[in-house]
Amino acid sequence: MKNCQILSKEVSTLLIFCLVSTISETLMAQPGFPVNNKPPIPIPAHKNISVSPSDTLSQVGQWSWGQSLAVTVRDNYAFIGNGSLLQILDISNPVATVNVGQVDVGSEIFQMVVSGNYVYLTPAFSIIDITDLTNPHLISAISSSYLGFTGAIAIWGNYAFVGNILGEIFTIDVSDRTQPEIVGGQSNMLTQGFFVGSIAVYDTVLYASTTDGTSADIFDISNPASPVHLSTSFGYRGVMAIQGHYLYYADQGVDNELWVYDISQPFLPRYISGTNLSSLSGYLAIKDSLVFACEASAGFDVIDVADTSNIHVLAHVPFRYSFPPPLDIGPVSAGVGSTSACLASNNGIWLVDMTKLPAFPTDYYLVTGWASTYDIATDTSNHAFLAEEYGGLNILDFSTPSSPALRGQYIPNEAVRAVAVNRNSAYVLCDSDLVVLDISDISSPKPIGEVVFGDTINDNNGFGELGCLAIYDSTAYVGRNSGKLYAIDVSNSACPQIKDITPTIGIPTAISMSGNYLYVGNANTGIQVFNVSVPGRLYESGSIMISGMGGLSASGKNLFTLSDSGFSKYNIVDSLSIEWIGSCKLGYDYTSQIKIVNNFAYTSYRNYFVTIDIGNAAAPTVFYSFYGPYGFSSFGISGNLALLGRVHNSLLLLADNYLTAVRAKTELRENFELSQNYPNPFNPSTRISYKIPYTGEVLLSVFDVAGREVMRLVEGVQAAGIHQIEFNPKNLSSGAYFYRLLLGGRSTVKKMELIK
To answer: The pTM is what?
Structure first.
């Protein structure tokens, strides 16, 4: 890994994780294990309607495929591993890279070599034809069941050499790329250690190093079918790269050093010089007289090797984040082009302008699926806002669900925990602050306001909750796992102000509002209720004790909760009194999210995304579930689409085909009303009331007689029920206007008249 040239102790842990993950995925594909669209939970009879999997939740799209462990660059093109996806990016303009082609190879990509018109990949040895860069296609593969768990790879003429986790090296004849063949049918080289982390070939000699070897191995491969193991007289353990007749070796024995050897006599490497590196290196890339040494979370060193007798570190470029990131986020491989370096960093790809070193000017960052999606918000224009932990905020356009596209990014110097969208602003909850972004231009979100909390979060709280966020009208409510609840005035997005702070009875996991009351769910302790009739003020009314409390959602007179007893529905009698209506069992490892649409509730637990029928108040029932091999970390609902964030592995888009029809019928039966404004005609202000039948994304806009939108009065998620807004158009002239209410594809319009 780290392009499968990882040798550090820290990254060995990552290797084991990936090995276990690969084995788990293989097992789950066997008979008896549930797969997508084959629900492990029986589907109950639902009002005499026959339901089949094809009618309900089906995957229609995916964004990001997994870890980013491998990258290489040739000319102006970067070849990157995005999970199991090989993507080809045109990087001639680093600030506007273009994805020219991609192909799914079926298994996660750990290392790659580009040679001629082909890309060679491991751990499942695969060959991709890239003659046409816009149409890369898989032409052959050898299963890892034949090779073992492989990593390191090198190409030499018509032969590929592949090392595995057992210290074995296979010689593969690739003279016919459509039918690669293991020479002799088994490995023909055995190193003196385990896990071959690096392979390099010069002339007729192969050099190999392992993660636990005491020295590097040398093989004579003049006869590829019968390699001969020679003395192991140089190095300790490390990663290697060759340019000309020089071998560069990042030794990981005692000190973190880069050594250069003269291999003009290939069987007798001769040490020339060395230099200390900033940290232990897991990958080397060479361009002309520069060597890039990737150093996990420490960043990377650029070493000047123009004078091989006096190599020295030209620049150390620390990793972008100003706070200590997890070990598995730093650069793990690199490819170097004419002016840009492309770095794979597990959760994404970075492009670095080499002409500006030693600064770290990142021109582009492509997030892949290693970061967990902590929260998802959507707007009325088919944009999803993904809080991607250490991957920042990513704005996705899913107007074409089968091919969602990244439209914009905001990457702060800290982890992102939650997000909410209201009109042209996005509110991003980070570890230390709340940042307000102007998203009028989706492609370029700009920070315009900030609130710094001044408290300390605790990653090891045992609940996995680091913050929750909700916005109602002009107030943002933020729960922090420091045990505090904040009320923040966001009426002026550029100048948000903390209006009130109060302690919570536990770690806040979810916030929801009904009428003038704010319900705050606290992990394992229960619900706190606050009277918020005075905007920005938190007057605690009391608490409701619920054992094993997890998440909640208030909708009108209904309160829905997740706890150790499962999913429950309550009737809100008054602010502090709730009446139990019904429950259904779920797994205990749930998210804190519940979303209500019409007569259905959505939530997730473990590896299941669940739809719950709440039409029968006394008997909420699991209506349908969707299984994924990775746990779900968050989700969003937009129209008939469910957007599922998976733990460390991408975003799935599901079409809710059957329930779309159910919702349409329900909406016709239930009230969706826009009242006539009062007074009308009016001067200077008027009241507009409307009723919506379910919680959803609401857009209330005003238009002139020419059909031009002149003002947006409401834009954001609102709970089911009756809403009212005061309209005071100071900047509009006298005349007739129209106002339109939009909810989930439905709309209604009224006319009003302003007289000045």
So the answer is: 0.71
pLDDT band at 363 (very low <50, low <70, confident <90, very high): low
Q: 66-367, which class in CATH?
A: mainly beta
Domain boundary assignment for the chain: 8-56+584-669, 66-367, 670-754
Q: Where are the beta strands (DSSP E) in 465-522?
A: 467-472, 475-480, 484-489, 497-503, 508-514, 517-522
Backbone phi, then psi, for 55, in 5-degree steps? -85, -20
**Collapsing DSSP states into helix, strand and coil, what is residue 266?**
coil
DSSP helix/strand/coil, 660: helix
- Token pair of 142 as six digits: 């050898």
* Cα separation, 48 vs 664, whole angstroms: 18
HEC assignment per residue over 44-63: CCECCECCCHHHCEEEEEEE
How many whole angstroms separate alpha carbon 128 and alpha carbon 117?
A: 8
CATH number given to 670-754: 2.60.40.2550
Q: What is the pLDDT of residues 34-49, one digit of tens each?
A: 223 333 333 333 333 3
What distance in Å separates the CA atoms of residue 614 and residue 612, rounded to the nearest whole number?
Answer: 6
Q: Nearest Cα to 404, choosing from 383, 425, 389?
A: 383
Radius of gyration for the chain, computed over Cα atoms and rounded to the nearest angstrom = 29
- Per residue in 387-436, pLDDT (tens digit) is 987 778 999 999 888 888 888 889 887 888 999 998 899 999 998 899 99
Count helices and strands (H / E) in the chain: 3, 64
Whole-angstrom distance, CA of residue 442 vs CA of residue 394 = 10
Distances (CA, A) of 183 to 126, 219, 220, 227: 16, 16, 16, 11
Fold entry, domain 8-56+584-669 = Thrombin, subunit H (2.40.10)
